[in-house]
Specification:
It catalyses: a 2'-deoxyadenosine in DNA + S-adenosyl-L-methionine = an N(6)-methyl-2'-deoxyadenosine in DNA + S-adenosyl-L-homocysteine + H(+). By secondary structure, the chain is an alpha/beta fold. The protein is 23% helix and 28% strand. It has helices at 8-11, 41-47, 61-73, 180-190, 206-214, 225-238, and strands at residues 2-5, 18-23, 49-59, 76-90, 99-109, 123-124, 131-133, 148-150, 157-158, 162-164, 196-199, 217-222. Strands 1-12-11-2-3-5-4-10 form an 8-stranded mixed β-sheet, sandwiched between helices. Strands 6-9 form a two-stranded antiparallel sheet. It has a two-stranded antiparallel sheet with strand order 7-8. The chain binds S-adenosylmethionine (SAM).
Length: 247
C-alpha cells in the first residue's frame, strides 16, 4: 500500500500498469480551493492500464459533459455507469431538485474489446433460490405443522445500476470523501484479487481502505500534503505495516 504526495500526472504513470484506475477528480463545480479541473490526466491514465484494465471515474453529469471531448481524445470508450444514491445531498440551486446522487462511469481503451476487460458480473443475493421458513402460522390454519419450502424462482439477478450507500458526513476527513462500501464494490467487480488499483485523486485514502478489505494492492496519489498525511495515517491505522512514503 502506497500513498504518494504530488501531482498524479507526474507520479502515477510510473507506478502502473493498473488493473483498475479509480479517479475522483475535482469536478470544478464549487469555490473550494482544490476544486479546479485537472487537465491532461486522462491520456496518461488510459496508457497506464493493463490489457484487461479499466478506469472508473466519479463525476456529475455536468462535469462529464464538460470533459466529454477529453475522454474521446484519450480514446476511452464508455462501458457503463453506476448512480450512487446518497441519503442526503447537495443543494446547489434553491429552485432545482436536490441532488442526491453522483455518477461513477467506467471506461476502457477503445483499442480493447469489452470481453477482454476484467469484469465480475455483480448479482444480488436476495434473489437467489432460498429456503423459506414460515415462523408463525396464521391462526386460522389450525393444526398444520410449521413449514419450510425451497423457493425455486429467482436465481441470481443482475445488480441494479442505482446503488444506495450512506455518505460519510460527520466523520469524513475530506469534504467529498466517498464511502468505503461503494469503493469496495467497484474494486471487487473491476480488479482481480491481488491486482493493482491506482487511485489518482486519493483525498482521504478511502479507496485504500477498500483495497485493504478486498485484498487488492493500492497506490494512491494526493496533491495536498496535509490531506496526504491524513490519508497515510488513516491507512496506517488499519495496517500492520507502514504505508509507503514517496521515494
Ligand atoms: C474529489 S477529491 C477526492 C476524494 C476522495 N475520493 C475521498 O474519498 O476522500 C479530489 C482530490 O484530488 C486532489 N487533487 C487535485 N489535483 C490533483 C492532482 N493533480 N494530483 C493528485 N491529486 C489532486 C485534491 O486535493 C482532492 O483532495
Amino acid at each position: 500500500m502506497t500513498l504518494l504526495c504530488g501531482d498524479c500526472r507526474d507520479l502515477m504513470p510510473a507506478q502502473g500498469p493498473y488493473d483498475l484506475i479509480l479517479a475522483d477528480p475535482p469536478y470544478g463545480e464549487t469555490s473550494l480551493s482544490w476544486d479546479r479541473r485537472v487537465e491532461g490526466w486522462l491520456p496518461l491514465a488510459a496508457q497506464a492500464l493493463t490489457p484487461s484494465g479499466s478506469l472508473s471515474v466519479f463525476g456529475s453529469l455536468r462535469s462529464f459533459m464538460a470533459t466529454e471531448v477529453d475522454f474521446r481524445a484519450a480514446r476511452l470508450r464508455h462501458a457503463q455507469e453506476i448512480v450512487w444514491e446518497k441519503q442526503n445531498g447537495s443543494v446547489f440551486h434553491a429552485d432545482r431538485f436536490r441532488r442526491v446522487h453522483e455518477l461513477i462511469v467506467q471506461f476502457y481503451p477503445a483499442t480493447a474489446r469489452w470481453q477482454d476487460i476484467y469484469n465480475v458480473v455483480a448479482t444480488t443475493d436476495d434473489a437467489r433460490a432460498r429456503t423459506v421458513r414460515r415462523k408463525r402460522r396464521p391462526p386460522h390454519t389450525g393444526a398444520i405443522a410449521a413449514g419450510i419450502y425451497r423457493s425455486l424462482d429467482g436465481g441470481p439477478r443482475l445488480a441494479r445500476s442505482v446503488q444506495r450507500f450512506r455518505n460519510v458526513h460527520g466523520r469524513a476527513i475530506h469534504p467529498t470523501e466517498k464511502p468505503v462500501p461503494l469503493l469496495d464494490l467497484l474494486v471487487r467487480v473491476s480488479c482481480p484479487p491481488d491486482g493493482l488499483v491506482g487511485d489518482w485523486f486519493a483525498g482521504s485514502g478511502a479507496a485504500g481502505v477498500a483495497c485493504r478489505l478486498a485484498g487488492r494492492r493500492y497506490v494512491g496519489c494526493e496533491i495536498d500534503p496535509d490531506m496526504a498525511r491524513r490519508a497515510r495515517d488513516r491507512l496506517a491505522a488499519i495496517l500492520p505495516f507502514p504505508v509507503g512514503e514517496p521515494s
